[in-house]
Prior knowledge:
Layout: E1 13-18, H1 20-38, E2 43-49, H2 53-60, E3 67-75, E4 88-91, E5 101-109, H3 113-123, E6 129-137, E7 150-154, E8 160-161, E9 177-180, H4 182-191
Parallel strand pairs: 2-3, 2-5, 5-6, 6-7
Antiparallel strand pairs: 1-9, 3-4, 8-9
Helix pairs in contact: 1-2
Amino acid sequence: MKTLNPTYRRKDLEKILVSEDSISKRVRELAADLSDEYGSNDVTVVSILSGAMVFTADLLRLLEFPTRLDCLRAESYGNLAESSGPPKITNPLKTDVAGRHVLIVDDILDSGRTLKSILEYLGQAKPASLKSCVLLDKKDRRKVDITADFVGFEIPDAFVVGYGLDFAERYRNLPCIGILKQEFQESAAHEH
């Protein structure tokens, strides 16, 4: 099979689902909703690596309450376009969340397995509250009964990249969110 040379730019996308301007507007709205929710409470924001880094950074700068930031890595995709099963949490938090308000920030909620596992994992620490905020929600892909407390956008069942979301660690740099052309998905799958 001929290996394609993607540019890692917008022209590798079949379609843009969420524009850069729409993302910026919605992140501001989510920050306002979260600021209303938490008031002046101190909140530990837990970003799920690596996909939520861009979203978390933009959101964090707009929050109007005191925050601490920590990160978890939950691996379930590898170089695949679909989750390979229950996620594995590969690095623990560095901060103690017992008795504290905790907000999980993730890039996408699809099968629900990752968020469910993270909620169970962090729930063991007995936080004062535990809520979740996801940028994207693919309800058609849900395998477990779970919903996020705050959602940026509902999207159709399509494989998306950009704004932190990747395919085989590529395309995170795109400022928009779009569907990767099928030929690039297939080409990358044959490289690994």
